[in-house]
Amino acid sequence: MNRNLKIHTVSFLLSLIGLVVMVFDFGFEHSDYLSKTYNIFYVAVIILGITSTSIRYYKNDDFPKKGVVVFDLISVLFSIFVLIRHFVVLDFQILESSVIRDNWLNLAILLTFIRESSDIKISIDRTILNPAQLFILSFLTIIVIGSFLLMLPNATHSGISFIDALFTSTSAVCVTGLIVVDTGSYFTGLGQTIILCLIQIGGLGILTFTSFFSYFFKGGSTYENQLTLNSITSSKSLSTVFKTLKYIIVITFGIELVSALLIYSSLESSDFKGFSDQAYFSIFHAISSFCNAGFSTLTNSFNETGFRFNYGLQLVVIVSFIVGGLGFPIVENIVKYIRYSVKRVFGREADFKPWVLNLSSRITLITTFIVTAIALVVIYILEFNNSLAEHSGFGKIVTALFTAATPRTAGFNTVDTSLLTLPTLLFILLLMWIGASPSSTGGGIKTSTLAISTLNILSLARGKSRIEVFKREISNISIRRSYAIIALSLIVIGFSTLVLSLSEKNLSLFDLVFETFSAYSTVGLSLGITDRLSELGKLVIIFTMFVGRVSMLTVVVAVFKKIKQKNYDYPTEEILIN
Questions:
Q1: Can you tell me the distance from the alpha carbon of 259 to that of 248, in angstroms, rounded to the nearest whole number?
Q2: Which residues of 9-39 are buried (b: 16+ CB within 10 A; e: fewer)?
Q3: Which of 12, 282, 489, 517 could form a disulfide linkage to 264, CB 3.0–4.6 angstroms apart?
Q4: Strand (E) positions, 210-325?
C-alpha cells in the first residue's frame, strides 16, 4: 500500500511539473532539441499516469462511483491513443530531433493531472482563513498567476510591462473589460486564450471549479469545506452545497455553448479567415458575454464594420449577458419554476406548490425588467438623433436596448461611448452603479440592493415600521446589508476618484468619474482614457476593479474578526436623522 501511495504521489508531482513545463513550452521560443526533451518528459508522465491509475483500480477495494470510472477510463484510453498516434501514426521516434510540439500530448498531460490530483485531500481550515478571506485570496492568486502568464514572450507580439499585464489580468479575472492594450491586435492567440481562461475562472470563481471537481471525484467533502462553500455559494443548507455547485457549472457551460452556436450562426463567414477563426470568435464572445466581462477581439467591440448592424448577433449577446447578470441562484430558481409550470400544464404535477419562484427571484426579475425598460426608453429618446441616427426602425430599438443593458456590467458597446450626449452618460453612470444581480458574474451595488432601498423609502413615506412586499417581510439583516453596500460603494468610488484627480491632472474629472464607476461596477465601458492613465492611475483602477468584484463588504468582513452574539439587549433609543 505504501509503495502504491508513492507511485500516486510521484505521478501527481510529475503531472504538476508537466503543466509547468507546458507553460514554458507554449510561452517561449525554443530549439528542436528542447522540444524533443519536453516531449520525452510528456511521454514519461503519461505512461506513469496510466500505470498509476491502473494500480489504483487494481489495489483499491473501495470502487469509485460510476462517473469517476467513466472519466478515468476515457482519459486513460485517450492517453493510450495519443501515444499510439505520436509514435505509430506520426512515426515519431523518441530520440528524433524532428519531435516538435504536439498539442495532443499537452491535452493528455492535463487529463493526467486532473486524474492524479483527484486523490489529493484538501481541507479548508476555517480557524486560519474565514470564507471571505479565502474568497479574496483565491482571486488574488489567480490575478497574480494570470499576470505572469500574460508576460510570457509568446503571449504578446511585442512584450508587455508588468503593470499592464497586472491590469489586464485583474480586468479579466474581475470580469471588467477595461483594457490598456487592444486585446485582438496586441495579444497572440495564446495570450487571448489565457485571457479567456481568466475570464471563465473569474466569472465562476476558482473555488467553484476546484470544489466541484473535488466533489465529483471523491463523492463528498469535509464538514469544514462544506461550511466554507455554503458561505460562498449562498446555499440554503449544507445538504444543497454541491447541488448548487453542479447547477452553476451546468448552467454556465450550457448557456455558453448555446450562445456560441447562435453567435456562430449569426456571423458572416466572409468576415473571418476560416472556420477555426469564426469558431474561436464565437466561443470567446460567448464566454465573455455570459461572464459579463466585456472583452472582445474586435478593436472597437461590436462598433465595427460588419458587426454594428448585425442585430441578430447583438440580441444573442444581450440575452447572454442579461442571463449571466441575473445570478446563478435566480437562474436555477427560474429553471425550477419553468419545469414545475410545464408539469402542471401536462398534468404531471397534481399538487399546487406556492412560492416555487421565491421572493428573491421575484424582486430581482421585476427590478431588472423595470430598470432595463426605463433605460431603453430614456436612451432611445436621448440618442434618437445622435448615436442611433445611422440605424432605422428595428435597428434603433436593438441598439438602444444594447446601450441600455450593457452598462449593468456587460461592457460591450455597439456605439462610440465618447460620442454619447452628456445626459446619456450621466444616466449610464447610474446604470453602472446599480449593476447586475447578486451571486452573478456582474458587479455594482446589485438590483436587490436598489429594490430594498427603494421599498424602504416607500415604507418610511407611508409610516410603516417594516418593509413588506408580496405578503412577505424583508429581514432586518437584508436592509442593513443593502445600506452598508451602498455606503461602502460610494466610499470606494469617492476615494478612487480623489486619488485619480490628483494623479491624472491632464484628464477631465468627468472622464475619471466615469472610469471609476465603470471599474467599481466591473462594467468595462470607458471614454477612451484607460491607456492614458499613469502607473499610479492604473494601480488605482486595479484596486477599484478588484474591490468591485469581491465586494467591499466582503473585504470588511475579511478584515474584522467576528464576535459571538450575546444574549442581551440594550435599551433602544431613536437618533435624530432628519
A1: 16
A2: eebbebbbebeebbeebbbeeeeeeebbebb
A3: 282
A4: none
Name the strand (E) or helix (H) holding 187.
Answer: none
Residue 171 pLDDT > 50, yes or no?
Answer: yes
Tens-place pLDDT, residues 207-227: 565 555 555 554 555 545 555
CB count in 10 Å sphere of residue 291: 30
φ/ψ of 469, rounded to 5, equals -155, 140
Q: What angle do CA 131, 137, 142 make, to 5 degrees?
A: 130
Task: Collapse the DSSP code of 156 into the 3-class scheme (helix H, G, I; strand E, B; otherwise coil) and give the result.
Answer: strand
Cα–Cα distance between 547 and 319 in angstroms, integer? 27
Other C-beta atoms within 10 Å of 40: how many? Answer: 13
Residue with cell 475562472: 201
* Closest to 58 (Cα-Cα) out of 3, 111, 122: 3
Name 469's bridge partners. 472
Measuring CA to CA, how many Å separate 21 from each of 10, 16, 18, 38? 16, 9, 5, 7
Contact 556, 488 (CB under 8 A): yes
Grid coordinates belonging to 417: 461611448
For residue 415, pLDDT over 60 is answered with yes
Instruction: Name the DSSP class of 445.
Output: S
C-alpha 389/C-alpha 387 separation (Å) is 6
Q: Across the chain, what does the average pLDDT equal?
A: 83
By CB atoms closer than 10 A (0-12, 13-18, 19+), residue 285 is: buried
Q: Scanning the structure block, which residue is given the C-alpha cell 470568435?
A: 281
State how far the Cα of 433 lies from the Cα of 517, in Å rounded to an integer: 6
Bridge partners, 547 (sequence order): none
Number of H helices, E strands in the chain: 22, 2
User: What is the C-alpha separation between 214 and 78, in angstroms, rounded?
Assistant: 22
Average pLDDT over residues 104-132: 71
How many percent of the chain have pLDDT more than 70? 84
User: Of 426, 429, 433, 380, whose CA–CA distance to 403 is shortest?
Assistant: 380
d(CA 445, CA 296): 25
Cell 507511485: give the residue.
7
Per-residue pLDDT tens for 43-94?
888 888 888 888 877 666 556 667 677 778 888 898 888 888 777 655 555 4
Q: Pull the grid cell for residue 192.
A: 487571448
